[in-house]
Amino acid sequence: MTSSEHTDLDGQEGRPDREQQPDQTHEHPGDPMHASSATELARDPSMTGLAPKVRLDEPDRAEHQDVAFSTTELRAARDEQAASTLNKPGVLLVEDSVEFAAIVRETLRRIKVDVFHAKDGRTATDYIRSNMPHLVLLDLNLPDMTGWSILEFIKSLYADRPESELPKVIVLTAYNDPANRLVGKLQEVFRFLVKTTTPLELQAVIREALAER
User: Fold this and answer.
1) Does the pLDDT value for residue 65 go beyond 70?
2) Counting beta carbons within 10 angstroms of the beta carbon of residue 95, is it exposed (0 to 12), middle (13 to 18) or buried (19 or more)?
3) What separation in angstroms does the CA of 130 have from each of 136, 139, 167, 169, 174?
4) Does residue 193 form part of some domain?
């Protein structure tokens, strides 16, 4: 037996090594087991048929569905919150006392009414011009003008609109004198309240005023 020949496990004389071993460099198109480059196999193990092909640039399907579901829920929550905000009536509180304003805002927050606080007449008129509130809680004694001046501004601003579109005005003041009450009646304010009113009374009046819009 020559050095180029060998005996197989059956004891039969085998063919020369060159003839028995297939050409390892021969490529077979379409056969992933004979890829021309080990680098390609390392990059894509699925070419051997032993591992499923995985796209690293795409998340797992189940994980993707979870993310999509969470995004949908968040979007729905945002839409609901936006709709809720749009449906809330605009209420303006004109009050120079920050402490009393905080009490009023907390009282109305408990009945889910948002309030914008203006502590002077100029801030109040700017807000009314830009936002057209549904309801104005009006103090009479302000640093730069009287509450009655703000009421006149409201009426002049809405002069070309039906009376039903005017913001309702609730006077909320420390002055309980007959003269101011008479002016309030002549100016057709919705209600004249003194600052000693209870939170429950204030909430009831606010609900009544907003229910008429």
Assistant:
1) no
2) buried
3) 14, 20, 13, 17, 28
4) yes
Summary mean pLDDT of the chain = 74
Q: Give the pLDDT of residue 113.
A: 93
Report yes or no on 200 lying in a domain.
Answer: yes
| CATH number for the domain harbouring residue 177 | 3.40.50.2300
Check pLDDT > 70 for residue 136. yes
- Cα–Cα distances (Å) from 85 to 1, 88, 112, 156, 158, in that order, read 97, 5, 10, 28, 24
Any domain includes 14: no
The pTM assigned to this predicted structure is: 0.58
Contact between 138 and 148 under an 8 Å Cβ cutoff? The reply is: no
Question: At CA 153, angle to CA 204 and CA 114, rounded to 5?
Answer: 35
pLDDT of res. 212: 78
User: How far apart are alpha carbons 23 and 20 in whole angstroms?
Assistant: 9
Whole-number pLDDT of residue 132: 86
CB atoms closer than 10 angstroms to residue 151:
21
Which 3 state secondary structure label does DSSP give 47?
helix
The count of domains in the chain is 1
Range of the domain at 187: 89-211
User: What share of the chain in percent tops pLDDT 70?
Assistant: 58
Average pLDDT (10-33) is 48
Strand-pair partners of 138: 94, 171
Residue of 156, 100, 164 whose CA lies nearest to 128: 156
Would 103 be classed as within a structural domain?
A: yes
